[in-house]
Amino acid sequence: MDSYINIKVRVWRQAGPKVAGHFETYELNHIFQGASFLEMIDILNEQLIAEHKDPIAFDHDCREGICGMCSMYVNGHPHGPDSAITTCQLHMRHFHDGETITVEPWRSRAFPVIKDLMVDRQAYDRIMQAGGFVSVNTGGVPDANAIAIPKPVADEAMDAASCIGCGACAAACKNGSAMLFVSAKVSQLALLPQGKIEAAKRAKAMVAKMDELGFGNCTNTGACAAECPKSVSLANIARLNREYLCAKFKD
Amino acid sequence: MWLKDSSIGRKFIMSITGLFLVLFLLFHGSMNICLVVDDLFGTQGYNWICEMLGANWYAIAGTLVLALGVLVHFLYAFYLTFQNRRARGNSRYAVETCPEGVEWQSKNMLVLGIIVILGLCLHLYNMWFKMQFAELTGIATSVFNPQDGSAIVKYLFTNGWCGIIYCLAYIVWLCALWFHLSHGVWSALQTLGWSNLIWLKRIKVIGTIFATLAVGLFMIVVLYFLGVNIGMLAA
Question: Which one of A36, A106, A120, B223 has the largest count of C-beta atoms within 10 Å of its C-beta?
């Protein structure tokens, strides 16, 4: 049963991109375990504002696990200790009375801290701009029988498309690699007829941009897929490798 | 050149050289088994192989290609690790955890590789230097005939307490190699794109089988001579 707990929250505070950050610990009493993690941070911020202190800056938007904005590294896991959820879907029942919860921003060179727990994830947008699209207008939704697509292929494309671009993969990776993100974006389009035509060009352009932005080299540790809030599979990385290598050898 | 400048190209080089080295290990390991067979049944298989390969042109060509493979794999490992550490940045997480399903060895490939290279140096000094090198240069690097490989190996592993220490060193080396391969083989196949939702699980099993087979072939020889040596010491 959910009850009320008293906790300590150890949060990374950093005034700006160029300033050195540090941890600060706040005591928080009477937190309902049915509250979401972000609601707990809201309560903490109200407490800070009441004390005339600077509230904690953090990214959040939809709070239902689909926008990919929330980005907290909670107790050593991106999006917290539960699996296959975003931070906004994390609830306080995963923590016990008296616990000290450590909250950090994503730490990767390609994601510089803007303030406190907010990081700049525009690197992912730039990779998308390099080729994560279909160049022509493919029109409205055709009848399902107009272009026959096998169900397993459609499923795999949908699973890849579930990537919300939150950055947890690169944040969890010891190599700072964005391969799971890039491979999901390449896969969702390469699997379907509309996107297949530009698959080789897309893989080359997106990988080139990823390398240019300074993301690391994937060594298949699998931390990305283990921490992904949408359980995007490592199989996508193999598809990206395949697409890229085939394209390069054809050149 | 995309094999140097793109992340997937660099990984491709790591995969190809790595798989080449695994094939060599299987080749080398199968030959080593002759040592145990020879000792048990009194045959001369290992020395026949030593004579056949020896310092002939094809063995030397093979050795040079192999050395190149090791060198490229080694240099790319440092290059990749250097880049990856830079990509990670200087700020480290205060709380580090290992998520479920992430193999320990996959995060320590460089360290395991360095142990393998150190073991390799010892091995080259003990074996290659006294066999192919001695035969090639004509310099007597040991009291043994360079073509009598069997005697060189047997002496090294069954030479009293020294032999036991050598056996233990080789066991540590082979364990590091097993961990390195148990991630390396499937990771190489994944990098070459030979994986999908179904094959991802299969290539992990294939990787473990390859690692166990390659390391097992060497391990049998070491454990056999360790047993012989302990038997001799006890007697």
Answer: A106
Which of A114, A141, A167 marks a domain boundary?
A114
Give me the CATH number covering residue B54. Answer: 1.20.1300
Asked if residue A244 lies in contact with residue B8, where contact means CB atoms within 8 angstroms, the answer is: yes
A102: phi then psi, degrees, rounded to nearest 5:
-95, 125
Instruction: Tally the domains of chain A.
Output: 2
- Provide CB contacts within 8 A for A199, sequence distance 6+: A186, A189, A190, A243
From chain B, the residues in CB contact with A173 under 8 A are 88
| Closest residue in A to B199 (Cα–Cα) | A235
The edge-to-edge listing of strands for the beta sheet with A73-74 is: A22-32, A4-13, A100-104, A73-74, A77-78
Q: Give pLDDT tens digits for A135-153.
A: 999 888 888 888 899 999 9
Q: Do A226 and B95 touch (CB under 8 A)?
A: no
Query: Would you say residue B235 has pLDDT above 90?
Result: no
- From chain A, the residues in CB contact with B73 under 8 A are none
Q: Show the domain range for A22.
A: 4-114
Q: pLDDT tens for residues B127-184?
A: 888 888 888 888 888 888 888 889 999 999 998 899 999 999 999 999 999 999 999 9
Prediction ipTM score: 0.93
For residue A94, the chain B residues in CB contact (below 8 A) are none
Same domain, A133 and A211: yes
Nearest to A238 among B88, B183, B195 (CB): B195
User: Which pLDDT tens digit goes with each residue over A87-117?
Assistant: 999 999 999 999 999 999 999 999 999 999 9
